Structure formats: C-alpha cells, structure tokens
Backbone:
C-alpha cells in the first residue's frame, strides 16, 4: 500500500495519518526498506508538516520502533538528513512539546 501511494503525496500523507504510528513495529516486523523509510521522511517534510505537526512527530517516533530502523538512519544520505533537519527545525518552531521533539531528534542522531 505504501508504495502504491508514494506517487501521490497527499494520499500518502492521508494514509500515514490513518495508520497509528504505534502499529509500525507490527506492520514492519521484518524491518523497513531504506527507500520506503526515505519516502516517509520526504512526505513528512513536504506534506504532513503543513497539515499536522503532532502526527509528524508521532510518525517519527513510531518509525524508531521498527526493527533495524536505527541502522537505516545511519545509512541515510544527504537528502534524507536534510529532510530530517528541516522537519525538526519546523517541529521546534511549531510550538509542539519541546522535550518530545528534542528526545526524538536525539534518537535520529541530529
């Protein structure tokens, strides 16, 4: 489902909002592929932040619970790292819970 929606940013964003981030560990019990993880991060930056800051933060937190996701973070290239930097800058400026934003940002090694 994720791949079929990836070409439509608005539909992909709506789908990400419909799926509870707490269920990511179960949905991706074998792990997540790097290109799909990068697609989720790109969608957060390009689409979801404009719609729902709080869910963007929850999505980032949920992704951290996916098996081997921490390893994928280590292999993110400049584009994904730039996306994450922009996402966290907007979350920090967006009035969300500063402690949750800072704790999540630290786990992404930024």
Residues:
């Amino acid at each position: 489902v994720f791949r079929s929606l990836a070409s439509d940013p608005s539909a992909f964003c709506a789908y990400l909002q419909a799926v509870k981030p707490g269920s990511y560990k179960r949905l991706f019990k074998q792990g997540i592929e790097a290109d799909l993880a990068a697609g989720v991060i790109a969608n957060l930056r390009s689409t979801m932040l404009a719609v729902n800051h709080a869910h963007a933060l929850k999505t980032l937190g949920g992704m951290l619970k996916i098996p081997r996701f921490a390893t994928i973070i280590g292999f993110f290239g400049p584009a994904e790292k730039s996306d994450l930097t922009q996402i966290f800058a907007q979350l920090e400026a967006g009035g969300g819970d500063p402690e949750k934003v800072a704790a999540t940002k630290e786990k992404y090694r930024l």
